[in-house]
Amino acid sequence: MTAPKTWSMDPFLEDLKDSDLETYLEYLNSLTNDFESANWLFAYSFTPKQILENIATNHPKHRINILKHPNCPRELITWAINENYEEITNALISSPITISGDELALIWEKSDISQRVAMAARKDCPTEILMDTWNSDFSQDSLFMNNRELAFKNIASNPNIPKKLIIEFMKYPLETVLDGELTIGQLLLQNSSVADETKALLVLRGVEKPVQVQQENVQGQLYVWPSNLAYRTRKVEQKFRDLFSSKAHPSSILDTRERLAPTPYNASVVLQYWCVEDERIYKCLWPDLAENSKVNFFFQNSSWQGDRTYIGVPSDLDLTDEEFMNRVYGSHDWIIPNTTLSYDDVIEEISDRGFNDILESEPTEEIIVSAAIAEGLSSGLFSLTEKGKLYIEDAGNDWFGDADDVTFAAKVKPHHSQKVWSELDQERQEIIFEIIETTLADVNAQNYKFAAYLGSLIALNPSTSPAIRAKLESLPSVLIKQALRV
Amino acid sequence: MSENELLPLAKRIHGYMQQLMEDEELSHWNIADEIGGEDELQMALLATAIVEGLIEGSAALVPIFQEIEEKLAELIEA
Predict the structure, then answer these.
(1) Of A204-218, A313-327, A425-439, B26-40, which has the strongest mean pLDDT?
(2) In sequence order, which residues have a C-beta less than 8 Å from that of residue A397 and are 6 or more positions away?
(3) Nearest-by-Cβ selection for B32 from A359, A365, A369
């Protein structure tokens, strides 16, 4: 099994498709009856048309999402055109399936102004409809709903732009930024239907080609491959799990009910899978660490970064690099934050923010007095009484209890859904070690730091055997060596 | 001046602070602005901490508190 070209493609499912089309369709069909599984099938861009047809038949509620799928059945588009629900019209307008000009005209007729403007972004939107959209009534626009600006953007970038509108656009200040992205001039410069002479004129008037930024953020794609569903929903026949496990599916390593693959696992696929699939690897490697007195767990609530739990070790073992992925996002029943702050926690929260920051946040008398004390603790001007300590602790819990970006101590316990490292058989431990070892052999490997982090978790684990510890020692990772010495 | 002076001094500062906040409806922020900044406000708040028994101040606080008291008194008079 080679690494997928993009993480959005399920290499195990696509491999099955290439080798055994019948079983591939049988597997996908077995998932279509389950409402939740169907959710993941239409989220997968490569789900074939006939499977989507089955989902649309079995679960009418999913039709709106199927309309947005690149393999959406044509019959569903026709059905949707005759429906009069706002959500269905929105889905139709955003459908990647080509829709004829006559059909789009029908949709346009029953659409409101924002839907008409959105339709102007479709590359198959006919010139006449773009013209009608240009001439629409935008008098209801407000500061928060600027349909006119969006219409300008969509029309200026549409290849079917009416020629007379190109002339109209040229009368506007070309440097006007539309919808916070490109300028009118840049949109016209990018439009394939704008004549070369006009583009030359745009350049003469100072329009510069926009810088193309294309980044694939695989970490951001919290994607579930359809093949994962064989392991997630146990309703699926065992033969499918056996099939994927035999192809070295990453789920078979940590799910101890499943057979291990006879062939080596692809380290790059497995690590990437552990990054994006779910918190299973953490469920396996974290709980044993509670037995190591040097390892602390912290839970930080944050509305902008997301709630996260992470490990901290008071030594030179620095796990703060984002690429280590030393965090589990969200709340989980196997992670228990202690939401009562100790005196030391409160002092830390105050010093993280600083007196001025607290002063600016309309503080209570108690927290601002506490902040004044905390700031002066090392000044030698006073000493703190026991009463003062309790006062600060209470004030801090009242003030920071519901605040954002507060760090609490947390406990992590084993979860019934996953065996922890110390319970894994030697073979599975060896496979995890080999994945780390293979990745660390290439300093440029994707997820190199994540592999080092996982290695350091095993090194910190009190139950790790001397044999594995000796192997970890031989790995070319400073982080792992530091973890072995904690 | 000695530590014996500290508690009465702290009480007077605490009294001024209460007066400014309750009668004049000034916020901590406003008071900081009026008496020279956040450092001065911090010292004024330490006076409250002494009155409440949260900290035990040293004699080194006396001259600092005197200065703060003077500023608060001026502010109230103004």
Answers:
(1) A425-439
(2) A340, A341, A346
(3) A359
How far is the C-alpha of A33 from the C-alpha of A55, rounded, in Å? 7
Q: Which one of B32, B38, B58 has the shortest CB-CB distance to A382?
A: B58
Inter-residue contact A380 to B58 (CB < 8 Å) = yes
**A113: Cα within 13 Å, side-chain hemisphere:** 15
Q: Looking at the partner chain, which of B46, B57, B58 has a beta carbon nearest the beta carbon of A372?
A: B46
- Whole-angstrom distance, CA of residue B13 vs CA of residue A66: 70
DSSP-derived secondary structure letter, A382: E
CA B40 remoteness from chain centre: 8
Half-sphere exposure of A1 (CA within 13 A, CB side): 27
Confidence of residue A4 (pLDDT cuts 50, 70, 90): very low
The answer to whether A88 and A80 are in contact (CB under 8 A) is: yes
* pLDDT number for residue A142: 79
Q: Is A337 helix (H, G, I), strand (E, B) or coil?
A: strand
Q: What are A239-289's pLDDT values in tens digits?
A: 999 999 999 999 999 999 999 999 999 999 999 888 877 689 999 999 999
Q: State the count of interchain CB pairs (< 8 A) between A and B.
A: 69
B32: chain A residues, CB-CB within 8 Å: 359
| Residues in chain A within 8 Å Cβ distance of B67 | none
Cα end-to-end span (Å), chain B: 28
Provide the mean pLDDT of chain A: 91
Residues B55, A362: C-beta atoms closer than 8 Å:
no
Q: How far from the centroid of its chain's Cα atoms is residue A283's Cα?
A: 19
Query: Is B51 an interface residue toward A (CB < 8 Å)?
Result: no
Structure tokens at A94: 């955003």
Distance CA A406, CA A299 (A): 8
ipTM for this model = 0.95
